[in-house]
Amino acid sequence: MSDFLLILVSTALVNNFVLVQFLGLCPFMGVSSKLESAFGMAAATTFVLTLSALASHLVYHQLLAPLGLEYLRIIAFILVIAAVVQFTELMVKKTSPLLHQVLGIFLPLITTNCAVLGVALLSVRRESSLIEAGLYGLGAALGFSLVLVLFAALRERLALADVPRPFRGAAIAMISASLMSLAFMGFAGLVQG
Amino acid sequence: MSLMHASTAQAVPGTPGVMRWVLVATLPGIALMSWHFGWGVLANVLVAGGLAMALEALMLRLRGRAIGATLGDHSALVSGVLLGAALPPFAPWWLLLVGVAAAIVVAKHLYGGLGQNLFNPAMVGYALLLIAFPVPMTQWVAPLGLVGPEALSPLEALRQLAGLGPGLDALSGATPLDAFKHKPEGLMAQEFWAGEPLPPGAQAAWRDVALGWLAGGALLLWRRLIDWRIPLALLGSLTLLSGLLYAGDPSQHGSPAFHLFAGAAIFGACFIATDPVSAAAGRRGRWLYGAAIGVLVVVIRTQGAYPDAIAFAVLLMNFAVPLIDHLLPPRPLGRRQRETSP
């Protein structure tokens, strides 16, 4: 039980994918100008990341490894992620049109989120069990969601600040992200390994 | 921002008045710290304060703002003084310059200057220095005193400031938190302290300094310049959580008193977390903000890699403040508590 908690804390805070490992920066910068869309993106990513971490774990250990095709993992994982995203979109559209309205445009975007591929590749390297891989994906997704939502709220306030002209827009957003990253370094050492 | 805080604005004198009181409130802490740790503390505070004023003037000029009125509000001086007091005594000039530049130029003026900074300037400077220059940032001198036989002379302090000194290796000693952090795994806490891991008088010195900051905080509370909720929530959650850990295993954890008085907890609670600009705006938000800082401090101190964690905890919660204000907005003035939901 405490192992599972450690995986969650480790991936969500200590090795946060955005602020510590610098993965998934495109949605982090791109979808964080409004709080509402950040919530939508966070929810969609959490769902897809967890599912794709499980699916790629299965594909790797049940299909690629027995056939000796490990070198195909990148392309296989991209395929898996694209399929999971498509499948999620179809399912959400059928079962919950409301949720589809909220998540709609974000779902296809997730295919290009490098954090999703990063999680799949890194979790395979850890040689973990299926449950651990799922938790690894969930922890990564929670960490991503946390900083995305916090960053979006921060940027909404930043939009009102009297930032010097050369630093407006992307520049001050990058500087804020770097200060957040600085703050997250405080979590270093919280979980060993 | 100024809109959000309008409900508290009329109770307080203008910014220059507030900042003057904050400067006065830092005096007991700085005086006691100088008494125990020597001229290096005064050098830090004066040089950092001066550099902060100079960089503030430079930034105002670059931004085409009136220099006189804004510089006269003392807010840059306060940031510089607080950073100077947080840094290890006898720090070289370049350490102060880098820290103050990060505080005033990046954390304050790039975000629009007074009243708009999202992150506490002094803590941005401190955290940046801690990550970038871990060695000079963790070298604390032993409490040699200001005038005692072993104390470093003012001239020696100036040489250290200029970076010409022989280095402080021979004189440095761990801080209590740092020493306890590196306690050997199997050793019991009592045995560890019995082995006198610290220079003589270090624990008493740190406790006196904390009491000095507490006196300053009491002054600010008495003048109603800081919201009592934040220090109370911060120190309360810190005491509660460290108390639970201590009750669970007193041989491996520091007592609540140790957590309160051995490090920067009281300094952070009274002078850093209470910065009205980077703290949460609403009452409920402030309870949450303060309590979360206290929890983060204990978690990072006991589980993390850093012996003290005020800077990181404050920055992490500064980063959460916009969302806290969004979810727990300040109540509009004049409304009673019950009517505000949903």
TrEMBL record, chain A:
Keywords (A to Z) from UniProt: Cell inner membrane, Cell membrane, Electron transport, Membrane, Translocase, Transmembrane, Transmembrane helix, Transport
Enzyme Commission number(s): 7.-.-.-
Compartments, as annotated in UniProt: Cell inner membrane; Endomembrane system
GO terms under biological process: electron transport chain
Highest taxon of source: Bacteria
Coiled coil (UniProt feature): none
Gene Ontology terms: cellular component: endomembrane system; plasma membrane
Cited InterPro entries: Ion_transpt_RnfA/RsxA (IPR011293), NqrDE/RnfAE (IPR003667), NqrDE/RnfAE_oxidrdctase (IPR050133)
Family: Belongs to the NqrDE/RnfAE family.
PANTHER family, A to Z: INTEGRAL MEMBRANE PROTEIN OF SOXR-REDUCING COMPLEX, ION-TRANSLOCATING OXIDOREDUCTASE COMPLEX SUBUNIT A
Role this protein plays: Part of a membrane-bound complex that couples electron transfer with translocation of ions across the membrane.
NCBIfam families noted in UniProt: PRK05151.1 (NF003481), rnfA (TIGR01943)
Subunit structure: The complex is composed of six subunits: RnfA, RnfB, RnfC, RnfD, RnfE and RnfG.
Designated name of the protein: Ion-translocating oxidoreductase complex subunit A
Gene: rnfA
UniProtKB/TrEMBL annotation, chain B:
One GO biological process term: transmembrane transport
Required cofactor(s): FMN
Subcellular locations according to the entry: Cell inner membrane
Record flagged with keyword Transmembrane: yes
Keywords (A to Z) from UniProt: Cell inner membrane, Cell membrane, Electron transport, Flavoprotein, FMN, Membrane, Phosphoprotein, Translocase, Transmembrane, Transmembrane helix, Transport
Membrane topology, record value: Multi-pass membrane protein
Highest taxon above the source species: Bacteria
InterPro entries: NqrB/RnfD (IPR004338), RnfD_bac (IPR011303)
Coiled-coil ranges per UniProt: none
Transmembrane regions: 93-111, 123-142, 204-222, 229-248, 254-274, 286-303, 309-328
GO cellular component: plasma membrane
Chief place of localization: membrane
Keyword Cell membrane found: yes
Record PTM FMN phosphoryl threonine, positions in chain: T175
Enzyme Commission number(s): 7.-.-.-
Family: Belongs to the NqrB/RnfD family.
Known function: Part of a membrane-bound complex that couples electron transfer with translocation of ions across the membrane.
Oligomeric form and interacting partners: The complex is composed of six subunits: RnfA, RnfB, RnfC, RnfD, RnfE and RnfG.
Protein name: Ion-translocating oxidoreductase complex subunit D
Gene: rnfD
